[in-house]
Amino acid sequence: MSTPAISIQNLTKVYPIPFKREKVTAVQDLSLTVEAGQVYGLLGPNGSGKSTTMKIVLGLVTPTSGRTEIFGRDSNTVESREDVGFLPENPYFYKYLTGAETLDFYGKLCGLSRAKIRDRSKELLKLVGLENAADRRLGGYSKGMLQRIGLAQAMIQEPRLLVLDEPTAGVDPAGSREIRDLILDFKQRGITVLLCSHLLEQVQEICDRVGILDHGVLIREGVLGDLISIENQTEIILENAPPELLAQIREMIGKSSGRLVAEHRPQKTLERYFLDVTGPKQS
Amino acid sequence: MTAAAPIATKHKIFSPARVTAIASNTLLELVRLKVFYFLLLFALLIIGSSFFTSKFTFQEQFQVLKDVSLGAMSIFTWLLGVLATAMLLPKDIEDRTLYTILAKPVPRFEYLLGKFLGVLLLLFVAISLMTGVFLVILYARQQDALANAARLVPAQALQEQLADIRAATFNKNLLPGIVIIYLKSALCAALTLLLSTFASSSIFTIIMSVIVYLIGHIQAIAREAYLASQTTTALTKAFLAIVALLIPDLNSLTLVDDIVVGNAISTVLFVKTASLGLTYIGIYFLVGYFVFSAKEL
C-alpha cells in the first residue's frame, strides 16, 4: 500500500487565551488519512478547526499533541514542504511583482535552477491562463487572476500535494469554474488535493472523500458518494418520454411495494444557467 | 497517470540562495515603495544650510555643514530603518504572504535573515547615496573656499591658509563616523525587527521602537542622575541595570560630535563603538528569531 499523502494521528490543538486561565480547543483528537491522488474536502462551519488543521499540516502551527505527516515525513520538518503547494484564503501576493516575477521568486525559494524556473513559469502561466498578464504587476490583477497566480505559485516545484483554503472565495462564477477545472486537471495529473471550502456544491463536484469538522471534532468522514446517497431511494431520469410511458411507470409503481416520492423536470444549476447566458456567444 | 516526484533539489538546512532571494525581494519591495524620495529632502537640507553659513569663517562653514549633514544622515537612516522594518513582518502576516513563503521549504531563520538583510541593503544604498551628496557639496564648498583664499589672502600666508582649508574639509575621520551612523541605524532596524516579531501591527512596532530609541538616548543621563541621588534603592539600581543591559546607550554609539569639532577618532574608539553596535545587532536578531520561531501563525 502506498504512503498516504497526509496522515493525521490523534491531533489536538489547544490555544491559551492571553491574560486568562481559560483555553480554547481548536482541534480535538483528530485522526484522518488522505490517500495519494485523492481530492479530499475538509468541511465545517467557521471556527470548526479546519484552518488550524491545515496550518498544522503545513507546519505553520505546532500541535499540542498528536502527529501529522506528509508522504511519511513529519510535517513539522521543513523538508516535508518540498512536496506541498499551498494557496491560502484571500491571498495578497507582493503587488509590486509581476506574475512572472512572482513565480520566479517562489521558484527560487524552492531551490529550482534558473532554467527550470523559466520552463515551469511558462508552463504554469499557460495552464492558469495568465500568459498575457505575465508582465503585469499583481496590483492590477483581478481577484480571479490572483487566485490563479496563487495556484501557479503553489505548483511551481511540482508538489505531490496541494492544500487549498477557500480557493474560489470572492471569485465570480466563471472564475470559480475555471479554478474548479484546474483542480480537476491537477487530479488528473495524480496530484493530491486537500480542499477547504464553504461552497458545498463545488466540493460535491470535485471531492472523492470528505471530512466534516464541528467544534474541532471530526463528526463524519468517508467517500462522498456513500455519505450523501439516500439508501432506500432510486432516481431515474428520462429524456423525451411520452405521457403514455410515464403513465405506465406510475401504474407499475402503484402495483409494487415502492412509493413514488417525487416527479419533476430536472433543473440545471443556477451556476450553469449563469455561465450559459454570460459566456462567450456562439456565432 | 501519477504525480511526478518533486523537482526541487535536495533540501539544504541553510541555503544562501533562498536568503538572497528573500533579501533582494525585500529590497525591491522597499525601492518600489519609492522610499528614496527622502534623498531630495536631504539634498535640499544640506544645500540650504550652506547658504545660511556664507557669512561665517570657512572653519565654521565646514563645521556646520558636517554637523547638519551627518546629523541628517543619522536621523534619515534611523527613520528609514525603523519604518521599513516595522512594516515587513506584520504586512506579510496580514496579507498571508508569509504563509505562502513558509509553506515552501524555507526555514523561519532564513526568512527572517533575508528580510533583515534586505533592510540592511536598503540602508547601505541610502547611506551611500547620502554620503555621495554630502561629499559632492563638501567638495564644492572647499573649492569655493580655496578660490576665495587665492583671491583674498596675501601670497606669504596663502599656502598655510590653503592647507587649513583642506584639513578642515576632508579628513580620515569622516568614513569611520559614517560607518557608525550605518551601524546605529542597523541596530535600530534589528530592534524594530525584534519588536515586530511579537507586535500585532506596524504602528505598534513603530511606536515601541521610537520609545526604545528615546530611552536609549536618555538612559545614561537618567542613570547618572538616579545613582547620584541619596535615595536610590537597590530595586531602582537593579531596574537601571536591566534597562542598560537591554537597551544600549545610543549616545555612545555616535562619533558625529568628534568629527564636527575635528577630534581625532582612534582605532580603539572606532572598534569599541562598532563592536558595541554589532553585538547588539546580533543579540536583537537572535532574540527576534527565537520569538519568531515559536510564533503561531
UniProtKB/TrEMBL annotation, chain A:
InterPro entries: AAA+_ATPase, ABC_transporter-like_ATP-bd, ABC_transporter-like_CS, P-loop_NTPase. Signal peptide: none annotated. Belongs to the ABC transporter superfamily. PROSITE patterns: ABC_TRANSPORTER_1, ABC_TRANSPORTER_2. Residues 6-240 form the ABC transporter domain. SMART domains: AAA. This is ABC transporter-related protein. Keywords: ATP-binding, Nucleotide-binding, Transport. It holds the Pfam family ABC_tran. The keyword DNA-binding does not apply. GO terms for molecular function: ATP binding; ATP hydrolysis activity.
TrEMBL record, chain B:
Keywords: Membrane, Transmembrane, Transmembrane helix. The chain crosses the membrane at residues 35-58, 70-89, 116-140, 174-195, 201-222, 234-256, 268-292. It comes from the Bacteria. It comes from Chthoniobacter flavus Ellin428. The keyword Ubl conjugation does not apply. Signal peptide: none annotated. The lineage of its organism: Bacteria, Pseudomonadati, Verrucomicrobiota, Spartobacteria, Chthoniobacterales. This is Uncharacterized protein.
